[in-house]
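Exercise 3.2. Students should predict the tertiary structure of the chain below and write it as structure tokens, then compare their answer with the key that follows.

Predict this chain's 3D structure.
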Amino acid sequence: MRSPAHPAKAAPRGDPERSGNQRLLGHGDLKLLLLALVEQQPGHGYELIRRIAGMFHGHYTPSPGAIYPTLTMLEELGLLQVEHEHGGRKLYAATAAGRRFLADNRDAVDAMTLRTRHAARTAAKMALPPAVRHAMHAVKHALVARGTAWNASEAKRVAALLEHAASEIAAEPDD
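Answer key:
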């Protein structure tokens, strides 16, 4: 049994089968993500919140209560610095120590990037209506069930069907 200091993880947000809220970013991932984002391009806290929300296609937005203390911690550790401050808005940039930290921990950064991409896909998938998720599953099942029984003309026919479906889905609905 876990102690209260180590609670069990809850189900992902939006999972109709389970309750609770799981963090979409694992322990330590926000620190690495912010540092990696700022290494790519300096940013203000609010801009970083928006960049992360964009990564999750709007299905997850970190709270200022998570972002700003983490930025402050990274600054206190010497991994970030404030390049410019205007009207209370701090522009954060990676320090040489921050870039070294990312280079020294490249495996952890790469693993965090993969986890974040997976969490973003999961969040987007869970935001779909159940009927659409079911239909997607049916299409995947039908394709996999074909196994190796494909010839060139059948592959071309199925590809055309899928491309047509994708085009129709992407089109603006007629209201």
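Discussion points: The longest helix spans residues 106-126. Confidence is low (pLDDT under 50) at residues 1-21.
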